[in-house]
């Protein structure tokens, strides 16, 4: 019979209960259940933390009330950590109702994930325990700060149990002062003599009182020492003599007993254990590869069954890992006895992982073997897949494992670094790495050169797209656009979908609508076929933008389709959904649904990163300006249009909205009464633009404001007679005919005014375009037209009702300009009780920097005090609402 396991804390004098080979610890179970907001279980390896917590959460009384999160070894990826937290919470009864699903995605903002989780848990009433084991393995300082923020702002019904080998800097001292922190430490986890006896008896080991006393005294009740002793004593001919033969510190005892376990194995098993200790996890095939033998899986299963510090990781018992203490000893033995074998073992493991589709493990082992070529090839081949699978932080960590010289000399690694800099908005650094990649391309072996060229083309395409250089995007996309054919070409599918969608996006922003429609449709279909939902959402969102140029109802339909797909994966708060919200906001605005359009734009403003996507930012600021203008806020409208112009100035190719933007800027100056400035702006324009249809509408608005309706009709005449057509510009057509009606009415030509207005209504009715009538209100003219008889009486009534209600019905809370990432980070700490110096400490910033960010946050939110800023941010959806009070 194998040895029993343990779980820990002080027990009662009565004989402890044994359940499934585990010594029950009711004292600690009670402490865990009754503790305050946070319980810290902090003790060295082998103290019994994991089994204590695992056996506690497996208790039927806690069924579906505890979320179990084991942190992976040396976890540096905040996204992966938080996805595991969300997944565990969703497995609880309360969490399954409250916590929305979330799929991994490139660039997923872990801070936003925490804010979203706080929103979801705001209605939590039933107590739920979030148990995070091996928290010391979380090596991301950012993720630890995010966890601390969750602890500070979460509802009281959510309790935290944090297990670690050492104390972590989590600011828990505040909870200690408030009596909300319970601590279980090594001394609490030590076994009592009664529990030690129960452990040995459960393992079928009979010890005399003196032998048990010696073992207990030598191990000092240390759980690992007792378990190791039980393992060593199984089948031992003289237990009492064994008990008297070892002594020393915990570490000495552990090394002695672990050596005992290793020495009791056969030579083939010892060889297997030693050579596979370089792996974080092992299966039978890997074991056979590294030992040169056979029967590895059976040997691992027998070791696990015997309790020899080998644990199965899956239900089929095909993957295993070693207890950390045991792994440490095995690695020490291997380094001491056969150090020359280590590179070959890592190299063999790296090749196996690469061949079997485990890229992260493959790269790590290739790097450990200093096989930089293999590591570089595997990382580059799986780079896009890792990113689209939400493992971007893992990819970055792996890239950081290469020496700088290796990166600079490898075309594909340098290209990947260029892509990273693009994601940070550092175009100059991106260019520097593109130059390095181009230079290194010459030394790439011939059988790899085509792939390296494609990788570099993808980065150049992204760089060109962010600059709005559509010609360069098209040039770089060409090698990727041919359909995949042979098996050797299937690796191109991710990149081909990416190229089609990137090219389509660039074509949308530069007015090449026919080509954009074809490329986006193809890219979306390919993304769907290869099951890349992130790319599919990206394509759909931009396809919605394209549709809005031709039909606002179709644009609304497609944008809602993109938002619905993003919602299925939990991405509605991510930049990928921001473009869809802009398209939806514009479609709603065009139809006069101003309040709904405001909400969509607020969502877009929270998610879009205009510094990374300036072309999308132009559209966002432009639509925001339109909404402000039609809602009676001309000054904010002018600011929004100016911001759009600044973003458009960053682009190489003129943005498709450029003329419309300048026309509406001119109309806004008129609305502000700045007629002279409008005239000056008009005079400064080149002739072709001044004669364009969009600008003729603006001139008509200006002339009407100058009380010169005759000049207005002259400006509009080429638009009205079709000699200056307005292509893909339904709103502008409606506005032109409406302005013509207003001008003719002012001239006393009632018949011409009536015909022009009827034409404006004819054009507006199919798509329900109310915006032009709200932007250039003519209630008297419309009312007379209705009374005289028209097929559009219902539409006129709708327009007049909107005009009377004032659209948004009063001031709407909104940002004066978007918050920066740093300002958002500080904002998330404002609902806590932390002072500015304490927030600075959390974010590793100076106090002055934090105060500056706070001042900017207040200004942009229109707040004067901290609580006002929090309330305003909550109203705008920037912060989760406060937890519901039970």
How would you characterize this protein structure?
With 886 residues, this protein is mostly helical. Helix content is 63%, strand content 5%. The strands form 3 sheets. It has a 5-stranded parallel beta sheet, sandwiched between helices. The protein is elongated, with a radius of gyration of 34 Å.
What's the helix and strand layout?
Blueprint lengths: L17 E2 L2 E2 L2 H9 L3 E5 L6 H9 L8 E5 L7 H13 L2 H6 L11 H11 L7 E6 L7 H13 L4 E7 L8 H5 L3 E5 H4 L3 H10 L6 H11 L3 H11 L5 H6 L5 H14 L3 H9 L6 E2 H8 L4 H10 L4 E3 L6 E4 L1 H14 L4 H14 L3 H10 L3 H10 L1 H6 L3 H9 L3 H6 L1 H13 L3 H14 L5 H22 L2 H8 L15 H17 L3 H17 L3 H16 L3 H17 L6 H16 L3 H14 L6 H17 L3 H15 L9 H14 L3 H9 L3 H4 L2 H13 L3 H12 L9 H17 L3 H15 L6 H5 L3 H10 L4 H13 L15 H7 L8 H8 L3 H15 L4 H10 L11
Parallel strand pairs: 3-6, 3-7, 4-5, 5-6
Antiparallel strand pairs: 1-2, 8-10, 9-10
Helix pairs in contact: 3-5, 5-6, 11-13, 14-15, 15-16, 18-19, 19-20, 24-25, 24-26, 25-26, 26-27, 26-28, 27-28, 28-29, 28-30, 29-30, 30-31, 30-32, 31-32, 32-33, 32-34, 33-34, 34-35, 35-36, 36-37, 36-39, 39-40, 39-41, 40-41, 41-42, 44-45, 46-48, 47-48, 48-49
